Amino acid sequence: MSQKTILITGGAGFIGSHLVRRMVRAYPEHRIVNLDSLTYAGNLENLKDVESADNYHFVKADINDLAAMQQVISEWQVTGVIHLAAESHVDRSITDPLSFIHTNIVGTANLLLAALKHWQGGAEFDRFFHVSTDEVYGSLGKTGYFLETTPYDPRSPYSASKASSDHIVRAYHHTYGFPVVISNCSNNYGPYQFPEKLIPLMINNIRQSKALPVYGDGTNVRDWLWVEDHASAIDLIYREGVDGETYNIGGNNEMQNIELVQLLCDVMDDQLGRDPGSSRELITFVKDRPGHDARYAIDSGKIQRELGWEPSLTPQQGFKKTVEWYLANQEWLDRVTSGTYQTYYESMYQSAES
Ligand code: NAD
Ligand code: DAU
């Protein structure tokens, strides 16, 4: 088999780092190129265990730079793209919507155009995989599920920017016949998630006995998926998905935020040897997120039926493993919350560049 070069964008982030690790290990015969601009959310320490693998390569570049995207895709003779780079945090999109418009819409359009030109120029190119979110479908009431056919109804600057990028990706398939595939996934959890997101933020605060800020009344529902199961789904869709199709990915694991925070408190009390129930006293209800979506729930029947994917862990196993990981990696949490992780790139790569 000829060597492939798979470009993964956003590989220094949370989900991207799990995907890069998986692909580097699973496909030693192929080159895995991680393209990331290393925003506050990008942390190369997440990939320490694979950074010296022969088939792993890191390129620091910004998807907002079209010329850079064209250069990278052509120089590396990229045979496929898995696109995760994005601004990903809903709260930040409320205070700074424009950076979401730039990166998630224009950045995706840049990358798409560069890949399209490469493909139209006759290069070997398997497909462009756009990794998206269930938030594009809007907010559910107490019943029902998001299907691949559910009409888009994004309601935050983040989800609107992801929805726009999904439309542009689909338009490239319809207009140019460009081989694309899209996935829309529910909330991920697991190691290496930036502690601005609910689960690592709560774990970090519980360990420091700080207040646990639950938005509104805590009854909003999310469908939680172990991050490595998202990575396995992406790998499978990349290899076996059908061009032009969309696949929903979910954990079949709906929980109210308050139930989840209470569960984390109890697991942490157990693991830290604290009095049962003591961490729950840290729970503090705070002002709600503006436009807070009430409920997300994914029907992932299509990927299960058509590609045979299923989650590997039960929620009980996944949450326990997650808490264990953050407690065993408190230095990682400390470096991320203090900002010192941002010097890792300089220490690892700047000397090699000069
Ligand atoms: P993240 O914020 O942890 O990581 C994003 C990565 O993208 C970072 O490494 C960052 O440096 C990089 N990046 C940002 N802007 C860039 C730019 N202009 N050029 C190059 N790189 C840039 O995000 P995540 O939670 O790992 O999410 C990854 C993708 O999956 C996103 O597209 C997100 O919309 C999607 N998604 C996330 C979830 C979730 O629960 N986290 C669920 C479904 C879909
Ligand atoms: O559904 C997929 C999406 O899940 C991804 O596309 C996004 O990139 C990812 O950030 C995530 O979005 P959410 O807004 O659902 O995740 P977050 O961790 O920010 O919040 C989860 C829930 O917890 C949400 O209802 C808001 C609430 N929350 C969050 C924080 C940070 C709190 O109550 N308190 C908090 O401090």
Structure, described:
The protein has a domain at 5-190 and 225-250 and 295-314 and 341-353: NAD(P)-binding Rossmann-like Domain (Rossmann fold, 3-Layer(aba) Sandwich). It is globular, with a radius of gyration of 20 Å. The longest helix has 24 residues, at 97-120. Helix 1 (14-26) crosses helix 7 (227-240) and helix 4 (97-120) packs parallel to helix 5. Helices cover 43% and strands 16% of the residues. Helix 5 (157-176) links the parallel strand 5 (127-133) and strand 6. It is built from twelve helices and twelve strands. By secondary structure, the protein is α/β, with parallel strands linked by helices. It has helices at 14-26, 66-75, 90-95, 97-120, 157-176, 198-207, 227-240, 257-272, 301-307, 315-328, 330-338, 344-353; strands spanning 5-9, 31-36, 56-60, 80-83, 127-133, 180-185, 187-189, 212-215, 221-226, 246-249, 254-256, 283-286. Bound molecules: nicotinamide-adenine-dinucleotide and 2'deoxy-thymidine-5'-diphospho-alpha-D-glucose (DAU). The site of nicotinamide-adenine-dinucleotide (NAD) has 30 residues, from helix 1, helix 4, strand 5 and strand 7.
Would you kindly provide a brief summary of this structure?
By secondary structure, this protein is of the alpha/beta class.
CATH T-level topology of the domain at 5-190 and 225-250 and 295-314 and 341-353: Rossmann fold
Helical fraction: 40-55%
Q: Can you summarize the main beta sheet?
A: 7 strands, parallel
Report the uncertain regions.
Answer: none
Counted beta strands: 12
Describe the oligomeric state of these chains in a short phrase: single chain
Structural class: alpha/beta
Backbone shape: globular
Terminal CA distance: 36 Å
Order of helices and strands: EHEEHEHHEHEEHEEHEEHEHHHH
**What is the typical, i.e. mean, pLDDT?**
96
Number of helices: 12
